[in-house]
Design goal:
alpha+beta; Nuclear Transport Factor 2, Chain: A; 4-stranded antiparallel β-sheet; binds zinc ion
Length: 134
C-alpha cells in the first residue's frame, strides 16, 4: 500500500525528507557515510520503499532475505522512531563501518525496540548493509 510521504524525514534528523533520506531513496544519490545509509534504510521501511531496502543489502548477504520478506516486515509494523546510538568508522574515507541503532515500532497493541549493531561495507563506491554484528 503506497503511503503519502511525510514532509519531515522519518529518520529523525529534523530535516525535510527531500533534503535528507529522500535524496537517497527517490533521487539515487549515494550515501557518503554508513550512518546516512542506515538512516535511509530506516526511512525506507517507513516509506515502504522495498526496492531501495533490497538494493541497500550487500550482494554477498542478500541470500539472507528476499524482497517479499522485507515487504512483510516493513508493512507489519508501525515505525515510530530511530535512535542512532553509536557509530564506528563508516566515514567518507572508510570502507567498512558499524552503526548501533534502536528502531522503535508498534506491532499490534505493543511497542517494541529493535536494537542492532549493523555492519556496513562499501562495495563499488556505495555503502551496503552486510549483516548485524554478533
Ligand atoms: Zn533522513
Amino acid at each position: 500500500m503506497p503511503l503519502t510521504p511525510p514532509s519531515i524525514c522519518p529518520c529523525g534528523s529534523g530535516l525535510g525528507l527531500t533534503e535528507c533520506c529522500g535524496r537517497l531513496i527517490y533521487q539515487g544519490l549515494t550515501a557518503e557515510t554508513a550512518e546516512q545509509l542506515m538512516r535511509s534504510r530506516y526511512s525506507a521501511h517507513v516509506l515502504r520503499a522495498i526496492d531501495y531496502i533490497w538494493q541497500s543489502w550487500s550482494e554477498t548477504t542478500r541470500q539472507c532475505t528476499t524482497p517479499e520478506a522485507i515487504r512483510d516486515w516493513a508493512e507489519s509494523c508501525e515505525w515510530l522512531k530511530l535512535d542512532i546510538l553509536h557509530t564506528d568508522d563508516g566515514g567518507a574515507a572508510d570502507d567498512t563501518g558499524t552503526v548501533t541503532f534502536c528502531a522503535h515500532y508498534r506491532l499490534g497493541d505493543h511497542t517494541h525496540q529493535h536494537l542492532e549493531k549493523s555492519l556496513f561495507q562499501r562495495e563499488a563506491g556505495q555503502w551496503h548493509y552486510v549483516a548485524h554484528c554478533p
